[in-house]
Amino acid sequence: xxxxxxxxxxxxxxxxxxxxxxxxxxxxxxxxxxxxxxxxxxxxxxxxxxxxxxxxxxxxxxxx
Length: 64
Prior knowledge:
By secondary structure, this protein is mostly helical. The protein has one domain (1-53). It has one helix at residues 26-57.
C-alpha cells in the first residue's frame, strides 16, 4: 500500500492520487523531479542568453 508523502494516508495499490488529500503518490511523482530539473536548466539558459543580449545591446558611453 503506497503511503502519501503529504498526509501519511495509506492508499489502495494502483491509485495515482491520494484518496485523502489528492496529491500525487510517489510512483507517479518520480518524473516530476526530472521535469523540474529540465525546467530549471532552460530557465538558466534563457537567463544567460538574456544577460548576453543586454550586455551587447545596452549603450556604452561615458557616464558623468
